[in-house]
Amino acid sequence: MEHIKKILAPTDFSELSVVGVRHALELARISGATVTVYHVIDDAEMLVYGREAARGMPGQPSQVVFLLEKYQRALSDFLRANFADLLPLVETHEKVEVGAPVKNIVEEAKKQGVDLIVMSTHGRTGLTHLLAGSVTEKVIRHAPCPVLSIRPQPKEDARRQVRRAA
């Protein structure tokens, strides 16, 4: 196995994605890799801003620029709030783009030449999985590199582990 130098850690800012980003940062700390924490603003959200973005106001930033800046701040806040312990120890980059999450994640991995994508999965089953699918599952199918899929422990399992450790 080749040495891991670049890791892509997609996030949707959810509690679930904290687990995946933490794994990516820990792995980078151990291996000396860099991590790009990446958020994709879904095209669907852009529909809300579409008309205003197309028109724009002379001398004012477009709604798209406003939205990108808003999510860039949200990404920075997300990292500081959840990973203050690891950020000084790992070279990180932050990136926010608009698009289709699966397509953008796969393209970003290719563009950056990442060695590994680390992301959380909901572990959905049944009807929900059939209807919605999984971003992680689709990234695994199309990624140009290995994907480490992190499934968080159920809360009850985590509580038991804490009790055992105590």
Radius of gyration from the CA trace?
Answer: 17 Å
Helical content stands at 40-55%
Mean pLDDT: 82
Task: Provide the structure class.
Answer: alpha/beta
Biggest pleated-sheet summary: 5 strands, parallel
Low-confidence stretches: 124-132, 156-166
Order of helices and strands: EHEHHEHEHHEH
Strand order of the largest sheet: 3-2-1-4-5
Separation of termini? Answer: 37 Å
Question: What does the model show?
Answer:
54% of the residues lie in helices and 19% in strands. It is α/β, with parallel strands linked by helices. Strands 3-2-1-4-5 form a 5-stranded parallel sheet, sandwiched between helices. α4 (101-112) packs parallel to α6. The longest helix has 21 residues, at 63-83. It starts with 5 loop residues before the first strand and ends with a helix.
